[in-house]
Write a structure and sequence with these properties.
By secondary structure, the chain is an alpha+beta fold. It is built from two helices and four strands; from the N terminus they run ααββββ. The model has no long low-confidence stretch (mean pLDDT about 85). It comes from Lysinibacillus xylanilyticus.
């Protein structure tokens, strides 16, 4: 009788551990925003650049050049980080955070260093 109970617990415990491990794998895998996938990253960068350039043109009436685009590397965030400068003045640096959640690209934060 004890052997059957121990066997049941071993099978049940092993199955539970495998199920939890698979669930954790799929949750972690699904945690990365789709816009940061290898296939979508090029398009994400272009949309973030376009959003930034339009923001500076509309809000500040200045043209900017973007030199660097990166992501945070974290799974839970929908942010793209951009660095650049004002056209014609490379000393006037800009730093921008663009929110990419739900394909609604929006400038979240701006820093202009003079």
């Amino acid at each position: 009788m004890k052997d059957k109970g121990i066997r049941f617990l071993a099978i049940f415990g092993g199955t539970t551990i495998i199920a939890l491990a698979l669930a954790a794998f799929f949750l972690i895998d699904q945690g990365m925003p789709k816009e940061f996938s290898e296939e979508a990253w090029s398009d994400t960068k272009e949309k973030a650049i376009q959003t930034t350039v339009e923001h500076f043109k509309n809000e500040n009436n200045i043209d900017v050049t973007i030199n660097e685009v990166s992501s945070s590397g974290e799974y839970a965030t929908h942010e793209v980080y951009l660095e650049g400068h004002v056209v014609g003045n490379e000393n006037k640096k800009i730093s921008v955070v663009v929110d990419t959640s739900e394909d609604n690209y929006e400038v979240k934060s701006v820093d202009i260093n003079v």
